[in-house]
Amino acid sequence: MSKMHPLKHIDTHMNNLISELQTLIQQPSVSAKNEGIEECAQLVKKILEKSGIPSEILRLKNVAPIVYGEIKSKKNPNHTLLFYNHYDVQPAEPFELWDDPPFGGKIKGNKIFGRGASDDKGELITRIKAVQAHLKTTGDVPCNVKFVIEGEEETGSAHIDQYLKKYKKKFSCDGVIWEFGYVDSKNRPIIGLGMKGLLYVELSVRESIRDAHSSLAVLIKNPAWRLIEALKTLRDSDGKVLIKDWYKEAIPFSKKDLEIISKEPFDEKSFKKEFGIKSFVGNMHGLSAKKALVGNATCNIAGFVSGYAGKGAKTVLPGDAMVKIDFRLIPKMDPKKQIVRLKQHLKSKGFNDVSIKIFHGESAARTNPSDPFVSKVKEAADQSFGKSILNVSNAGTGPMHSFVKALNAPCISIGSTYMFSRIHSPNEFARVDLLKKTTKCICILMDKFGKD
């Protein structure tokens, strides 16, 4: 084996990391359209095995497969670190807003562009290459390492609970590194100790059997107005959800949580500039804005469709209307209970004619800031990046609660995703320098994790 230290090995093999990321980006894997899912799963398996990580494809009937990799430590077989990632990506549309082909993996300076460059193929490659660096230099890994790489994350991880139940023993571990981690505008990694939950629903109203001439609006009710009236009862202008008992089980921040939140930097000016906005919801600023990102529930209109939205004018009275809503949930909010409350709310307000379709729901999860795993991740991040930031909870959602519940292991986010890397948007990119630093961070973390 090479006598070179694993961290030096990363420096000499960055070109290989980038070329394999390009290969992954060039393989479309859009779960929403079932485009390239099987092909990408096979490609990920191939990359794992090429990197020295034995792997297999796990399946449930008519479900996107999970790619599972596992390598056992010779010197420390008593500690197991699990990396959770996903190989599926968001749809690339609208294609015309991309400067280059979305599945091209084009490199421009310090950036590599393409759908999945950051979310989540870039993150996956950093973990694989960190393991490979140890294998190439020592012939071993500092602890047991497992990879669980799913293909449905971007559509809500609908079957992850079934996979976790079926393969609970296979996935058993002492700590989980989540699929991503943000890096802020000052190049500081944000170590996420949790994620919000989610309830995604569709509300719809059908008033007439077809669209009509808008002059008939004096007689025929407009379903778009009906939905708007219903939506206005769900939340106030400051973002507070008005549904009865919505916050009943929600847990307030602990003293330790508030201490971490107060220390967390948040550049309001840069944030507003990035999105071209002048103020936040409810004119929040300072600590209030930081607390909202970490721990406020939301009721967001993700899309509203009714009538004519093409060019020019068309005087039409729509026959139906539909709105998609995502509710972000905080710890102890149970999606199943929240669905019942939403239905009861609409009924109590007289909106029995509003149909409800439920897409999926996930509970929130948080790791205790005092867990020893937190300090190990922070030490590794500080060593690789120079400075890191603890974050009580990410504002986004993933199936973290499912992993914590099934595996009874702490779960932490750390990664290479620059916070303005346009994930889920046109011209998504990953920064090469952050991919390199994150690979080093994972290398160091494996060392620290194996020294207990």
Helix content: 25-40%
- What is the number of independent domains? 2
Number of helices: 14
Give the neighbour order of strands across the main sheet: 1-2-6-3-7-19
Class based on secondary structure composition and strand pairing: alpha/beta
What is the CATH topology descriptor of the largest domain?
Aminopeptidase
Question: Architecture of the largest domain, CATH level 2?
Answer: 3-Layer(aba) Sandwich
Task: Look at the structure and give the CATH class of the largest domain.
Answer: Alpha Beta
The unreliable regions are none
CATH superfamily of the largest domain, by name, is Zn peptidases
Strand content: 15-25%
Q: Sheet bearing the most strands, described?
A: 6 strands, mixed
Number of E-type strands: 21
Arithmetic mean pLDDT: 95
Tell me the span between the first and last alpha carbons. Answer: 25 Å
The Rg value, from CA coordinates, equals 23 Å
Shape estimate = globular
Summarize the structure.
With 452 residues, the chain is an alpha/beta fold. It is 33% helix and 21% strand. It has a six-stranded mixed sheet with strand order 1-2-6-3-7-19. Strands 10, 12, 14, 15, 16 and 18 form a six-stranded mixed sheet that branches. A three-stranded antiparallel sheet has the order 4-5-21.
